[in-house]
């Protein structure tokens, strides 16, 4: 089934996840659920995924 997934769909989903992290992680940091440096690292990683997929797709 995963062979049928288009790279554009992957980019859209990764971007959605990145947007969600940017929206939620600051609240989680303030609530003490996650450390600030961990939140930023996870955001940076997801941003890297979006960039890499976008480059790979030639977009």
Calculate the terminal CA-CA distance, rounded to whole Å: 24 Å
Average pLDDT confidence is 93
Estimated radius of gyration? 13 Å
Order of helices and strands: HH
Number of helices, counting only DSSP H or I runs of 4 residues or more: 2
What would the principal axes of the Cα set say about the shape? elongated
| Share in β-strands | under 5%
What's the structural domain tally? Answer: 1
- Helix amount: over 70%
Structural class by sheet pairing and helices: mainly alpha
Major sheet? none
Low-confidence stretches: none
Number of strands: 0
Q: Can you describe this structure?
A:
This protein is mostly helical and 59 residues long. The chain has one domain (2-56). The protein contains two helices and no strands. It has helices spanning 7-30, 36-56. Helix 1 packs antiparallel against helix 2. The protein is elongated and about 40 Å long. The mean pLDDT is 93.
